[in-house]
Amino acid sequence: MSVIEPCQVLAAGFSFHRKPFYQNQPEGIKNYLFRLQTDGRCQACIGGEMVKIEPGDLLLCNPTEPYALKIDSELNPMGEQTIESGDYHIFFAGAWVDEWWGRHKRPTKIKVQLTESLLGLFRQIVLEQRRISNPYPEISEYYMKILCLEIDRLLAEHPASSHQSYLAYRIKHYIEENASSAFKLEDVAAHIGISVSRAVHLFKETFGTSIMQYTLDVRLNMARERIIFSPMSLEQAAESSGFANYTYFHRVFRSRFRMSPKEFRSIHREHL
């Protein structure tokens, strides 16, 4: 009998269904499961009822919960009956997982953004699981722990209180993922699917700062790290952090850190 490691991935993969599929395990799935819907729709058992699962829905299932999944035809926007459902799924177990799961009360379903960082974690775990010969199984364990902790962060930020705060967090994530590129308020609002005025109001109400001020804060932190740790010139560090104008960057950097970028680099590299 094999020994389960403290945090062990038992199976991981990506599935895309174009035919009906039904799975029912009323006694539970015996292990923990993360299932992230990426494409199409299906139905899953939550709280004893079958509910619709859409892209961005993440299922968190413990070993004893009844589990059921149904993929069947439904009407698409053209009025045609189609079957389409894509998902990442990871079955895992271990003493570390038991302890992690028990830290908080966890909902069976949460809505998440399908960001490249989150999808990248799922993809990497799937790739590690596919390796025929793997002398470093600890890598898969570490990725799994990172994913669990990332889900903790998502739960901490998950706006169970209102749809409005959910939209505000989507704006926040957009800024953090795109801060190194130039974008306008219109781009942020269009990504979320709301008006510019509503986006500005929701973000300010939720976080107590403006979208552009938060963007500036993220960009300054990016530039600060690159000035200290990268071999880039100061101009390159500024440009790669989303500042197209070095004169403006120099001014806001000095205002924030009370010294010029050149002085900042000199002082902090003395301590490396």
TrEMBL record:
Residue ranges of domain HTH araC/xylS-type in the record: 169-267
Entry annotated with the keyword Hydrolase: no
Keyword terms: DNA-binding, Transcription, Transcription regulation
Superkingdom as given in the UniProt entry: Bacteria
SMART domains for the chain: HTH_ARAC
Pfam families: AraC_binding, HTH_18
Protein name: Helix-turn-helix domain-containing protein
